[in-house]
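Chapter review: from sequence to fold.
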Amino acid sequence: MRLSTPRVWVVTETTAPLRYGWDGKRLIVARPGTPSVHRRLLWLDRNLPLIAGVALLFVLLTFRPQAPSVGIILAIIPILAGIIAVRRSTQLLRADLRILTVASVDVDNSHQGTSSRRLFRDCVEELRNMERDLRRNRITPVEFERRWHDVYEALPSHRLRK
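The token string follows.
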């Protein structure tokens, strides 16, 4: 199960420990100054396969008795075209994302995790604090962007593999 929290800087995800005591968290930060339109497009890129799956399931359950196989195939084509179009349009945006993943496992009654837990905690705390400060007018938008940039630079960069 994945729980996402969208923010101005993009998203934090928590994977609930369903089995074997495994727990994962991911912080995804966009380049500072990324317009909200691009952030929404990135959100769509991450969630469109799930949305498409639910829509396809709805089509299958609703129209299956009446719709022949050709109709279902014709329903799949625009869904796949939409996914491909969104993936292509976000390719450069995804290359600028900074992603920090932290995992922990319970092994022999001891809690072991990756070494970047402190960085994760510090970055999430700073991002939440700066968001709160901006909403309360304690900082200017320029200061908000500067602090966002500091967090962005603290995270490891990953290149998009081709």
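Two observations follow directly from the output. DSSP finds five helices and five strands in the chain. Residues 44 and 51 are 9 Å apart (CA to CA).
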